[in-house]
Design brief:
The protein starts with 5 loop residues before the first helix and ends with a helix. It has about 190 residues and is mainly alpha-helical. The protein is built from 9 helices and no strands. Helix 1 crosses helix 6, helix 4 runs antiparallel to helix 5 and helix 8 runs antiparallel to helix 9.
Length: about 190
């Protein structure tokens, strides 16, 4: 029997995780079924279990994947050379990204974290990752003399809260143009 190379297993696992996220976006993590993920991929449930141990393992992996993608998007956005460009990129790549993979699942994750300690931990990790990246950008801008006497920790917490609020608004039907207008006005006021 031929051996499966590790790169193939990693790719197969990534595809399974992405299918689980797509399934969760449509049906919610609480309604996620291994059978639904397998059908989405055109594989059997038995094959699925070769790559994930359980539904909990799959959900945990999906949450870690979403967190990783969010962190990458934030790092890309925060690498912009200007503060305005950074906040514009945060809107485009984090708050209102193209494709929006995992966004409905993230909203559900935040709502479910109220009653689920493991989700609360995952949400907390996401929040801290976002907070730390934005705080670093604001500290750099402050050190360069572009922000004056700004309380970066408080300002960062407000920026993250506004971003999450806009994300929730988008889930409730807030259109992109209005969301962008709110984001720009909020960021301008926070940084004044």
């Amino acid at each position: 029997m031929p051996k499966v190379v590790p790169e193939y297993k990693d790719e197969a696992r990534r595809r399974i995780i992405e299918a689980a996220i797509a399934e969760a976006d449509e049906k919610g993590f609480s309604n996620l079924k291994m059978e639904g993920v397998a059908v989405r991929l055109g594989i059997s449930r038995a094959t699925l279990y070769l790559y994930v141990k359980s539904k909990d393992d799959l959900i945990s992996s999906a949450l870690a994947y979403i967190r990783s993608r969010l962190s990458e998007s934030l790092q890309d956005a925060c690498s912009n050379n200007t503060l305005e460009g950074t906040f514009s990129a945060i809107f485009d790549h984090v708050i209102y990204p193209e494709g929006r993979m995992g966004m409905n699942a993230i909203i559900e994750m935040f709502a479910s974290a109220v009653r689920d300690d493991s989700l609360r931990d995952a949400v907390g990790k996401n929040y801290r990752a976002i907070h730390d990246l934005i705080a670093a950008v604001l500290e750099e801008q402050k050190a360069a003399g572009r922000l004056g006497d700004l309380d970066t920790d408080l300002s960062t917490s407000i920026v993250v809260s506004v971003a999450l609020g806009i994300r929730m608004g988008a889930a409730a039907g807030l259109d992109r143009d209005e969301a962008h207008r709110v984001w720009e006005a909020a960021v301008r006021r926070i940084l004044e």
